[in-house]
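Aspartate carbamoyltransferase, pasting as requested.
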Amino acid sequence: MRHLLAAEGLDRDTITELLDTADGLKQTLLGREVRKLPTLRGRTVITVFYENSTRTRVSFELAGKWMSADVINVSAGGSSVGKGESLRDTALTLTAAGADCVIIRHPASGAAQRLAHWLSDTPAAVINAGDGMHEHPTQALLDAATLREKLGSLEGRRIGIVGDVLHSRVARSNVHLLTCLGAEVTIVAPPTLLPAGIDTWPVTVSHEIDAELPSLDAVMMLRVQAERMHGGFFPSAREYAIGYGLSEARAALLPEHAVILHPGPMLRGMEIASRVADAPNALVTEQVANGVHVRMAVLYHLLASEGAESA
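Structure tokens follow.
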């Protein structure tokens, strides 16, 4: 694996190998007072975030540091990007300075792919930490790791993805990855928040959340991405909560074994009720914890595994 740019195109064996590696790393670190492995000693990992982030950025930084890499964070506001430097020149500058891996989050769909193209003559790996409304592959991997940990095999499991699918790179990556692992995915959203071409996705589509919840093994609530919305996609926050929010009454419709996920940050009271978000079957904090181990696994396969240099 040369880069990780998208969940689409990953085959089942590769996904399973990444998840197994993440689980192995998690077990290795379990109970250790000092969470430090020498795996990436001497490697330099640089994160370049053109959008705000807490979970993704912190977990990538921890992943690199727990594997003994040197991790450097670059933000658009505090770099030459603020002076007008292009993404291409920024990337070439970072690799010339010695970056072995560039992790990028960018508001433009396809930015990670362009970056990988520009760096094709260098040994640096590129990881997509979210590009516009396109993909967020490591989020899908950590969601799958969390579901697999709680539900076992995902073969035949029914997973509901609810909310702002139109603007969600998380939804796109999860559809590709979860269906590849054999899950049956149901998209639940108002018509205004469904992307064009969704009829070509390997999913079923519903507008009635109450009708779908009783048959789900897991439900993934999405963040309403107001920053990407230009125009009215629903009447009000209250109307959205009434139609598609996961209230306590709705959560009670889920089977006893079902689990609840959210990529964060959560809009409590709109997307999900506070008591539901804090319930024992809500795995939001587990997702964050698994995110570190999944991103460690990705860094390992790109920078340390056999064949990483020549892949």
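Note for the archive: Strands lie at 44-49, 70-75, 101-106, 125-131, 158-162, 184-188, 204-206, 218-221, 259-261.
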